[in-house]
Design goal:
Strand content: 5-15%
Strand order of the largest sheet: 2-4-5-7-6
Shape: rod-shaped
Radius of gyration: 49 Å
Number of strands: 7
Mean pLDDT: 74
Number of helices: 8
Helix content: 40-55%
């Protein structure tokens, strides 16, 4: 009995001791866990900070590279622009582009005045035209490999004044030497009778009667077609014709409905000097002493000037 009691007492003491000693290890384990969690959190935080710094540095580097690339592209574009400007400047010096030589009522009136000063009559009809051709007052348009004539023109309308023929030969020769192709005369001499018919079907045609009429009626005027001419050829034509106009040798108007250079040539015209061929015409004398005649033809006689009293206002075309 006593032994049993002692056994129970020992067991109770051991049980109490066990109960009192177990919390200490648990507390130690809990602190270790907290420390471990804190360490992991610190490592994660440091990693995030590192990653954020790396990303920030990457963005900064990317922006820097982008700015550098933009500067490089900008320098490239600026260089190309400077090169283009230099190229355009060089081309501009080689062949300047002139504005169209637009006509006007004043120009048409001047052409009438100057052809009257040259004592040129208006050709009335086909019989009058045939008589002037027979007397060699009019000569054939000087067709050649460098100068063609509109195939639709009647044979007896492929004539002009001798100085006009000389001008056409010079123009065609210079053009062919530069561009290796011919120019085309689309219209030459007309009669009053023909001009009236033209007015009926072409509302852009100039008058046939009156103080200011189409100078084609005198045979001094021709139309050179613009169709088929390149931009460079057009620029050259304008550069060559304008000095001659300023020198008083010709008058020129660009027509757009019929697409041609309408050119009236005066007796003052002489074959171009080298300066003229380069676009630098010298002033022409008031009257040229040179006799204008085509090869194999005698010098023409003079026409008497005539005046009509009924005024009419011409339109843009010849």
């Amino acid at each position: 009995m006593l032994r049993t009691a002692i056994t129970l007492l020992v067991m109770a003491v051991l049980s109490i001791s066990a109960a009192n000693g177990s919390p200490a290890p648990k507390a130690k384990t809990h602190r270790s866990a907290q420390a471990a969690v804190s360490t992991r959190a610190s490592k994660k935080s440091a990693k995030k900070t590192h990653n954020a710094a790396a990303v920030k540095d990457g963005h900064a580097a990317g922006r820097a590279a982008g700015h550098k690339a933009k500067r490089r592209n900008a320098r490239g574009r600026a260089g190309k622009q400077r090169t283009s400007a230099r190229t355009a400047s060089l081309h501009g010096r080689r062949m300047a582009t002139r504005s169209p030589l637009v006509g006007s009522h004043e120009s048409l009136a001047r052409q009438n005045d100057k052809t009257e000063d040259d004592n040129l009559e208006r050709i009335e009809d086909e019989d009058d035209l045939a008589d002037r051709i027979a007397r060699k007052v009019l000569v054939p348009v000087p067709a050649s490999a460098a100068l063609t004539v509109n195939g639709d023109l009647p044979e007896n309308h492929r004539y002009c004044r001798p100085w006009t023929a000389l001008f056409l030969a010079d123009l065609a020769k210079l053009h062919e030497a530069l561009f290796h192709k011919p120019i085309e005369v689309s219209s030459a001499v007309r009669t009053v009778e023909y001009q009236k018919q033209l007015m009926e079907r072409n509302g852009n045609a100039a008058a046939a009667e009156g103080d200011v009429v189409s100078p084609h009626l005198t045979g001094a005027t021709v139309d050179v077609a613009k169709q088929g001419l390149s931009t460079r050829e057009m620029g050259w034509m304008r550069s060559w014709l304008l000095p001659l106009q300023k020198a008083g040798m010709i008058d020129v108007e660009e027509e757009f409905h019929q697409s041609c250079f309408h050119i009236t040539v005066y007796k003052a015209y002489v074959s171009p000097l080298p300066e003229v061929a380069n676009g630098q015409a010298k002033a022409a004398p008031a009257r040229s002493s040179r006799r204008h005649s085509a090869p194999g033809l005698s010098a023409p006689g003079q026409d008497k000037a005539t005046h009509d009293t009924k005024p009419q206002t011409p339109v843009a075309a010849s």
